[in-house]
Structures are given as structure tokens and as C-alpha cells.
Amino acid sequence: MVTYVNLRKTGTGWEFENEDVLEDFVWANLTPLFGLTPLKRQYIVNEQRCDILALGENRQLVVLELKNVEDRYVVNQLTRYYDVLREEKPFSEQIDYDRPIGLIAIAPSFHKDNFRDRKYCHLDIQFLQFEILVDGERFHLQLKDVDTGKLSQVDIPHRERESTDNIPSPPRALLNLLSKFPDADSQLLLQMRIKIMSFDKRIQEQVNSGTFSYGKGKSKLCAEISSKKDTYGNRIRPCLILWLPISPNLNKYNSCKRLGRMIISSRSFPRDSFLSHLDEYSYVAYKPKESRSHSANQYWTVEQYIRLYLGTKEDVYPPLGKIDMVDFLVELALAEWIKRI
């Protein structure tokens, strides 16, 4: 799934929300930005905490120090890290300490004292100045080597969240529908509605004959809330529909390619809730809206579907109940929706 980066607008442009966000993003993009392999982050050696340790070509150690604002002491920090790493030689089975240690400082700007310190510390420290560029609705991180002028760039997956304060109250028709469901399911669906509508300001709530759809227009939906009458006990049960990846082959992991209209429900009757407590009877079923058949075109248990999507098998995936299954599926539907916009 897409991991979105929190940015904030300033008087002169955009910046990362804090240094942790900057570090998360650089760590996730070490390979496309630098061709490096992640090794450790926030690694403490002899009382010195290194932001990022990475591996370059031929097992070379590279140390990155990140600053979200200008910092006069970044060279001093890298010098200390260099000293203790040379002395302690951690991860020696992975690192060739006969090779020079790469030192990189990343910041939005560099103080004149940084250049003085670097001039006389006799270490080869690379200064990379970063800037967040905006092209329409797309954001990019640009790194510039202040000595050579060389540029590199990578996309930043960012979106402006809609404040929950701006989300309209649920339509009366939706509240009437939810009142027919078990209380736990009603509360869950209200929470999912807030999550969906706060995901992106372009998501609209549409009402049509007792069905509440969420997305952009009629063709780019991510979720629906409706109801279905039980064949057992004449009860009204909630129907949560998400546009999720479809896999054509259960035995082929990570084979989810297409998107489909997937119903999230349970075949266990009677029960106090259908969505808030998923179990081995809970399922994900692919059923196109135009299908006239009462049976689903494809069918998985919720746990089976999530394992399939993640490409994991039972012995390496948390057992059912260890994660919030509905929240996971809604997050997945939103991540897939944003790709289509």
C-alpha cells in the first residue's frame, strides 16, 4: 500500500512535518535516491546515535545525517559518528572497513559554519540540499549536491487530508439505515465513513436508492454502504462494499492485478454483528454490480484474502484477530482509489 508523507505548507513553500517524517521518507527511498541498501536507523554506537547507516557498492558503509532545518553542527555530528564507527566496527560481517566511510549531510540549507567545519575536519562529507517541489498536485523531493550541482529527484506520495471538522453530518437516510443494524456494526460504519471522507477532499458521498457510495463521480468509487435481508430470520444485515484487487489464482501469491467490487460480510447466522467482529466465517466476495447471479464470482475468507494480497503464508502472518481486518481492507481500498485519480 501507498505510505503517504505528511507535509506542511510554509510561507515560502513546503516542508516535512518533522524530522522523523523526513527520515522515514529517505529511509524508504535509499535505493532510488542513492543506490544504497538500508542497514540500520537510529543506531547507537558508543553513545552516538546515527540517523541512517546504509551499504554502498562493495560493502562500503555510508552514514546519513538528516536535518529538517538548517543546523550549524551537522559536520561535528558526522565527525563523531565517523570516529566511533571506525573504532567499534559494528556489522563487520557486512561492512568492509578497509573502504572509506561515506558521510552525507542532508538539509534544506547549510550554514556558513558547516563549510568552515568541513574545510578543516579533513573528512570527505557530501552536502545535499533538499527542496520540496510542487507540480500541480504532485510533490517531489529534489536533492542538490552543493559542490557539484548534481540533482536527483523522487516523487513524494502526499495528499491533502480533509479535516474531520469539515465532514458533513451523516445524511438522515444513512442514519435510518444504520439504525437497523447491530449497534457495533453501525458504529464501525460511521467510523469508516469518517475515515473515507477525510482521506481526500475529492471524495464525495452519493445517495441512490438506499445505497451510499463514496468516491469521485460514478465510475471511480472506493466504497459503498447498503443493506441486505437475511434468508435466515428475516434480519437486515449491513453490506460493506470495497473496490479491492482481485486475484485470479489463489495459489499464486501477489497475483492481485485487477480491481473489483468486493462484498465484506459473514456467512455465520445468527450473530450480533457482521462487520465489527470478523472471524473464520467472514468473507470477501467478488460480485460485479451487473451480475444477476445470487452467488459471488469469486470468494475468499477475509484472512485468506489478506494473506493472498500480502503474499504471505499462514506461518508468517499474524493470526486472525491480531490486526483490524476491516480497517486494513478500507485502507487498501483507499490506496487503490488514489492510484486511479
TrEMBL record:
Protein name as catalogued: DUF91 domain-containing protein
Domain of life: Bacteria
Signal peptide: none
Endonuclease NucS C-terminal domain boundaries: 35-89
Gene Ontology molecular function terms on file: endonuclease activity; nucleic acid binding
